[in-house]
Amino acid sequence: MKHICILGSTGSIGTQALQVIDALRDHLNVIGLAAGSNVDLMEQQIEQFEPDMVALADEASAELLKARTRGKRVEVLSGQDGVIQVATMPEADTVLSGIVGIAGLIPTLEAIKAGKHVALANKESLVTAGCIVMKTAAKAGVRILPVDGEHSAIFQCLAAHERRENIRRLILTASGGPFRSKSVDELCNVSPVQALNHPNWKMGRRITIDCATLMNKGFEVIEARWLFDIDISKIDVVIHPESIIHSMVEFVDGSILAQLSAADMRLQIQLALTYPERRGSPVPYLNLAEVGRLTFHEVDMETFPCLRYAYEAGEIGGTMPAVVNGADEVAVDAFLKRRIGFLDIPTIIRQTMEAHKTQDSECSLDDIMAVDKWARDYARCLITPRVRGGA
To answer: Using one digit for the tens of pLDDT, what is the confidence trace for 27-67?
Structure first.
């Protein structure tokens, strides 16, 4: 029996993780849950899974939850300190880090320091502070188990091929999102509703927009650099609309290993929670005859420059990835609120990158958090004139 804590339990990854755990109650047990402010859903999760401890980052929401759960055998905590207490519960074997945004970085690091294996879905932890996270994990002797489908695929392909000198390149697949066949002119007036209509995956709002711009794939490139200790120049991206091959590893002899499965995040979540064992899954088995064919296309980085900016940030290193992440989060939020257009997202990211003087690759956690704040503030200043100008 593995004891699990879930950070971000009311979000897309967290709710799917709880579906996995519900199907494997003989093997997985939830002891801690943390989320932002969703009182209603957290109350339902307490009723269903009976955790020992929960936390809501929003203090007013936590007080309401305390009132609703009075008399139940659960400790309700609040604020970031409460989230960290859930992340570091002594009884926990694995912590699933599914909090969206850079807010997930510090709880993830604290879980690692506490000796917990981490099932990592919070991409900002590696995008902004990959060096710190991986060094901390090595020092603590814990595993970082990828939840993203692409990284899980590479992790599985490398299971029997640990020697990095045998790897020629990693090949991340991308569905291309809802606009993969569109031109720049066709993207000028797309709406948030259109951008949120992903053809293959159901995800949170920010990550869905990032998939539409291909920024999410760029973040995955940076994550892969840290997860698998490989130079970013050896990481390629290919468009694969069917989302059946989740990623591939090419070796120096020309052999390519690929991991295939249905487009359902619960498979990757389950492996991260049960590793090194595999269990039966509620996800239907893949029928290749029904799939029929698998296709691949090169990425159009002129139409989707966010991927190019992520590669550039990864090459520069230091604090630049944190700048890209912060600017992207602000720009995506503004687009979802219809304050800017879809093509303004990469423009704001580019201008924020150009205004930043990168700090050394050995930057501290405090440096990263300060640069994240600067990037957000700078991006917001770029957005204001666009709103006033009627963009």
So the answer is: 999 999 999 999 999 999 999 999 999 999 999 999 999 99
> What is the domain-level CATH number for residue 141?
3.40.50.720
Sign of CA dihedral 225, 231, 234, 237: positive
Measured distance CA(167)–CA(251) in Å, rounded: 4
Q: Which tokens in the block code for residue 359? A: 């700090």
Q: Which residues contact 185 (CB under 8 A, 6 or more apart)?
A: none
Report the interhelical angle of 39-49 vs 59-68 (nearest 10°): 40
Tokens of 230: 């490989």
Q: What is the pLDDT of residues 244-253, one digit of tens each?
A: 999 999 999 9
Burial environment of residue 76 by CB neighbours within 10 A (0 to 12, 13 to 18, 19 or more): buried
Output the pLDDT for position 385: 67
Neighbours of 357 (CB within 10 A): 7
**Cα 110 to Cα 228: distance, rounded to the nearest angstrom:** 22
Same domain, 177 and 142: no
The answer to whether residue 284 sits within a structural domain is no
Q: What does the alpha-carbon distance between residue 105 and residue 99 come to, in Å, rounded to a whole number?
A: 9
Contacts with 102 (C-beta within 8 Å, 6 or more apart), sequence order:
124, 128, 322, 325, 326, 329, 369, 372
Asked if 335 and 193 sit in the same domain, the reply is: yes
State the pTM of this model: 0.92
Taking only the tens place, the pLDDT of each residue in 324-335 is 999 999 999 999
